[in-house]
Design brief:
With 263 residues, this protein is α/β, with parallel strands linked by helices. It is built from 7 helices and 8 strands, in the order αβαββαββαβαβαβα.
Length: 263
């Protein structure tokens, strides 16, 4: 296998135990098997890839994939998805709230992500912003309002560092950059999606408030978030992609054009 296309067309089924033809053209991404199981139960379909790195369930031209955790796996799944060129990819992730006003269960609709994870630099220079596809985020916004929920919007900081909640200097840095939330995947999904010409977006669920000791995620608070908020998070994601699917509108791919010299 010499070309990228040959590799990803071989590897996506290998990672998921799912033939290319069985994927939907609208993709939900998650870090958690719970989301895939809930989707499968909701639509009465089976989960594939139980013994593979990534689990998949598909219904009504929508596939949900649990790709694992972290920026490296986010880049991997976005590269592999180029094998099927999906019409839209929406990441349903959890994040830490960085503002005093954020609370458990808040929804965050990112307008951009700060590339602190390093993975994206294999794809684009560091100064290129990590941006979602505007039309996809519009669909998510409208769907949230249909569910009579509010959401927060702003910039998310993506890091490849998992255990940092004890580090005062890093927390001081996060305060200076004024990000709304922190996670480990969003910037990578946006960057690698851009490179692969895949329309992409994200809707994040605040699962902890790690800037204060009592806000750091625990097993108890994570279970609380799962019980109270994950069902709605998933339903908004499904309904957002269904709206795009049924509208027949394309989510156009933004391109950064180089400035040509007139000389």
């Amino acid at each position: 296998m010499k070309s990228k296309d040959e590799i990803v067309r071989n590897w996506l089924p290998r990672y998921t135990d799912t033939p290319l033809k069985d994927f939907g053209r609208h993709i939900l991404l998650t870090n958690f098997s719970r989301y895939v199981d809930l989707f499968a139960k909701l639509h009465r379909v089976k989960v594939r890839g139980q013994s593979k790195p990534m689990q998949v369930a598909t219904a009504n031209d929508i596939s949900i994939i649990n790709f694992g955790m972290g920026s490296a796996m986010a880049a991997t799944v976005m590269d592999l998805l180029s094998a099927i060129q999906p019409k839209a990819v929406l990441f349903l992730g959890k994040c830490g709230g960085l503002k005093k006003e954020t609370k458990l269960g808040d929804l965050v609709l990112p307008i951009a992500a700060i590339r602190g994870e390093g993975t994206g630099e294999w794809y684009l220079p560091a100064e290129v912003p990590a941006l979602p596809s505007f039309r996809l985020q519009m669909a998510v916004s409208a769907t949230i309002r249909k569910h009579e929920r509010d959401y927060r919007t702003g910039v998310v900081y993506t890091t490849n560092r998992r255990v940092w909640e004890h580090d005062k200097s890093f927390k001081d840095y996060l305060k200076k950059i004024r990000a709304m939330a922190i996670d480990m995947e969003t910037a990578t999904v946006f960057t690698v999606g851009f490179i692969n010409k895949i329309p992409r977006g994200a809707l994040l669920l605040v699962s902890d408030n790690p800037m204060i000791p009592e806000g750091v995620k625990t097993a108890e608070t994570d279970n609380q978030v799962n019980r109270k908020f994950v069902d709605l998070h998933l339903r908004i994601g499904v309904d957002s992609l269904a709206e795009l699917r049924d509208s027949g509108e394309s989510v156009k791919h933004l391109r950064f054009h180089s400035i040509q010299s007139s000389a």
